[in-house]
Design brief:
Distance between the termini: 66 Å
Strand order of the largest sheet: 5-4-3-2-1-7-6
Helix content: 25-40%
Number of strands: 15
Order of helices and strands: HHHEHHHEHEHHEHHEEHEHEEEEEEEE
Largest sheet: 7 strands, parallel
Shape: globular
């Protein structure tokens, strides 16, 4: 049973929610109104964030963060064999929780890494589909990181460290839970009842906002039921009108079946979404360094991880098409970020320290890419145009066929202040003489950027 203190906290949360409604509400609880809210500017300017999938699933660390579902929902043979070989008969998933100790979790060192990676925002899994909360949720009694496992408020501790470094803080929250009895009961009733939503989902969302004042809410687990079941529009109307983060908070588009790529704040559309052309709506690509999982896997192999050139190419193409890039790593149950993930993140940061002008606060140019001598991806910022390329051209001669030059055209390479020599190609385009590259080495940059001033 919840403690008296937990019940009082929950009552206070609901009281503050109810009291917040009053005159002057700007957004009404319908999609026409909610979708009209301008996206806070910080999100588009940030461009690069880090995603963290961390929970009880990090303890078995086998194959996927969907471990519990694959084991006891689908009865997948590989998961059944893993449990039979490594755990005693009758072992239950909740018995993993005490082993989720996070004894080496140091939020200060994590945030130093995230800052060094060049990230401007960080999104932590506060609750995945398993239902375990990484804070002391008053409606997740004994199935949270304060009552068991770490005995620590992981959400609060990380948030405090991030804000010391002025990094934006996002909270991932799953609307549903695979095996929660109230959810299963609502599902059996065709989602005509809302016992789970009223007693679990909404209290947790309001609690997260009131306690931690997040900059971003990354909703998930919505797909089995319509937004009317989740009461999504009512929650978002409160969030936009009366919450403590009403002017700064950003949300995604996972608020009910059929909402993805259609309603909400910015669009995720689907995991690892990659549009073929410039979308009309602000979007974000979420992807993972581990191509097989979002959570930590003890069985991962180096060949299954994205290498640094692939990550940089993905980041550049995403930003060129107007998106944000949210790169996931899975911490261990002990609270460490695997060294191979750290190496990738620091590599991204090293590249951004030289080329960040072409990424942060940039906008899509009127042409996003071309492929003449080598593939080129364009971004722009104010009067500047950036041409990013991943392959060094033959004879050090880079041809750009799209920009229109003028007498005021000036060309430089990011990381070097010296102007580069260039000649026009015709009505449009120019040929740029690049400085000779350094000798081939494992530490060579995965991409380079030419900055153009005075072009159209």
């Amino acid at each position: 049973m919840p403690s008296l203190a937990q019940l009082l906290l929950l009552l206070c949360v609901w009281a503050s929610v109810d009291a917040s409604w009053g005159p002057g509400v700007r957004y009404t609880p319908d999609w026409d109104s909610l979708d009209s809210r301008p996206l806070p500017a910080w999100f588009d300017e940030a461009k690069f964030g880090i995603f963290l999938h961390w929970g009880v699933f990090s303890v078995p660390g086998f194959r996927s963060e969907w471990f519990w579902w694959h084991w006891q929902g689908e009865h997948n043979a590989a998961y059944l064999a893993f449990m039979k070989q490594n755990y005693p008969p009758g072992f239950s998933y909740p018995e993993f929780a005490p082993q989720f100790r996070a004894e080496f979790f140091d939020p200060e060192s994590w945030t130093e890494l995230f800052e060094a990676a060049g990230a401007k925002y960080v999104v932590l899994t506060t609750k995945h589909h398993e239902g375990f909360t990484n804070w002391g949720s008053p409606v997740s009694w004994n199935w949270n990181s304060v009552d068991t496992g770490p005995h620590r408020d992981l959400v609060g501790d990380l948030g405090a460290a991030l804000r010391k470094r002025n990094l934006r803080y996002g909270v991932y929250h799953s609307l549903f839970e695979w095996f929660h009895p109230l959810y299963l009961s609502d599902k059996k009733a065709g989602f005509k009842t809302q016992d789970f939503v009223r007693s679990k989902t909404l209290p947790e969302l309001y609690d997260l906002v009131q306690r931690y004042k997040p900059d971003l809410i990354w909703s998930d687990g919505e797909w089995e039921a319509p937004d009317s079941y989740w009461n999504s529009t009512e929650f978002l109307a409160w969030l936009y009108n009366r919450s403590p983060v009403k002017d700064t908070v950003v949300v995604n588009d996972r608020w009910g079946a059929g909402c993805a790529c259609k309603h909400g704040g910015y669009y995720n559309c689907e995991d690892k979404y990659t549009p073929g052309k410039l979308p009309e709506h602000k979007w974000e690509k979420c992807t993972s360094v581990d191509t097989h999982s979002w959570g930590y896997r003890r069985d991962m192999k180096l060949s299954e991880l994205l290498d640094l050139p692939t990550i940089i190419r993905d980041l550049v193409q995403t930003v060129s098409l107007g998106g944000n890039y949210l790169l996931n790593v899975g911490p261990t149950a002990e609270g460490t970020i695997p060294v191979v993930f750290e190496e990738r993140l620091r590599g991204v940061g090293a590249w951004l320290r030289v080329n960040g002008d072409a990424i942060y606060s940039s906008r899509p140019w009127h042409v996003q890419s071309e492929n003449s001598t080598v593939p080129i991806w364009y971004t722009s910022r104010d009067s500047l145009v950036y041409a990013i390329f991943f392959q060094w051209p033959a004879e050090n001669m880079l041809e750009l066929t799209t920009p229109k030059t003028s007498p005021a055209t000036n060309v430089t390479m990011l990381g070097s202040p010296k102007p580069l020599k260039w000649t026009p190609l015709g009505v449009t385009g120019l040929s740029v003489l690049l400085p000779p590259p350094g000798p081939p080495s494992p530490t060579a940059p995965p991409a380079w950027t030419v900055r153009l001033q005075g072009v159209a």
